[in-house]
Design brief:
It contains ten helices and no strands. It is an all-alpha fold.
Length: 209
């Protein structure tokens, strides 16, 4: 590799590292303060405000990219759930999503708030498709409620998960279990059935992250 090649590649690598640092700093800053300013994020990233604006036009564009990255991670998790029992698969999905979102709850809450959740509908399409597929399977075998349509039930489950992520105290040791039981309850299980399912499948809540 020539000196010219090395020089040409260095700015691109540095720019990529700066961008990644800005995104990490933004996630950390928003976790501490959902109203964190561009200046605060730039300081946390050890960059100037001017450098930050070289990557993102404004605070909203920065948040949008964070949302898209989070949606991508949620979709990866959705693709990792393969249990044949729709109830177990749904509970596992809820538990793993909770684990991901709880680490950056404020940023996740911003991603899922009324302002941004509609903008990220396409980005979350694989996750939503997974939930709908599980609902249809559960309704077909009678393990999930059948009194409402699959599409409506899938959306109610999504709203239940969103509420858990934005409202529950992540410091509570019971938070994951509460989030999972909320999803299962909306899906049609009684509280006793929720308890039995989680006792029968302890690995759902015993997740190493």
């Amino acid at each position: 590799m020539t000196t010219t090649d090395t020089t040409a590649r260095r700015p691109r690598r540095d720019a990529q590292e700066n961008r990644r640092g800005i995104l990490d700093a933004a996630a950390a800053a928003l976790a501490s303060d959902p109203h964190a300013s561009i200046d605060t994020i730039a300081r946390r990233a050890h960059l100037t405000r001017r450098t930050l604006y070289g990557h993102f036009a404004d605070r909203e564009s920065l948040i949008r990219e964070l949302v898209e990255l989070g949606a991508g991670r949620f979709n990866e998790i959705a693709g990792s759930v393969h249990d044949d029992d729709a109830r177990v698969a749904l509970a596992t999905l809820a538990s793993r999503l909770w684990g991901e979102a709880s680490r950056v709850q404020v940023a996740a809450a911003i991603a899922l708030d009324e302002t941004h959740v509609h903008d990220t509908a396409d980005a979350l399409a694989p996750l939503r498709a997974t939930v709908l597929r599980l609902v249809r399977r559960g309704q077909a075998d009678g393990s999930l409620r059948e009194d409402i349509t699959a599409g409506t039930l899938a959306r109610l489950i999504e709203e239940s998960a969103r509420m858990a992520i934005t409202r529950l105290d992540v410091a509570s040791p019971d938070a994951r279990g509460l989030a999972v039981r909320a999803v299962l309850s909306i899906a049609g299980l009684s509280w006793r059935e929720c308890v039995d399912l989680l006792e029968t499948h302890p690995a759902i809540l015993d997740v190493t992250e």
